[in-house]
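User: I'm curious whether this sequence folds into something compact or stays loose and floppy. Could you predict its structure so I can see for myself?
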Amino acid sequence: MVINMTSEEKKRRKRKNLLIALGVILAIVIIIAASIAWIWPKSKDISESTVFQAQEVEQQTQYIVSLLDEADYTTFNTCTTGDMNTTLTPAAITQAKAKVSDNFGSFVSFGDITMDEMNQHGNVYAFAQQEVKYENVTVIYSLTFDENMKLVGLYLSLIHISEPTRLRRIS
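Assistant: Here's the prediction. I'll summarize afterward.
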């Protein structure tokens, strides 16, 4: 069966098919954008949080750093989630600290701290970056806590090497 369409009907059909294709493409773009927005972490200052208290996050951050400094890994493991218990073994922590510096020296003081609340994948986390001064280095500890204030992320980075250590490493 052959259907004869006038040129006006052909134009309307093309236009309809084009609008359907554009609608499908637009829907796909909206779905992708919504997915990226949901996956992408959103953060706000901890003072605006309804889940975390700034003082509690700061205290827990400094407590975790103190446990690591004292090599009290048994107590440290009580402050972490199950996944972290198996990942952050005493050997792994020692190795990570050695990659930052082979000689921190003694603890001197806690420096500046910044704290944010992060929302990612529908989960809420507290994120803290604590500056810690030692005799030979200053280290930034980046810690992430879940809603129960259990450690779910830990990162160490060196921000300054004192002059005697730096000279020894260069020579």
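Summary: Residues 162-171 have pLDDT under 50 and may be disordered. The longest helix spans residues 7-39.
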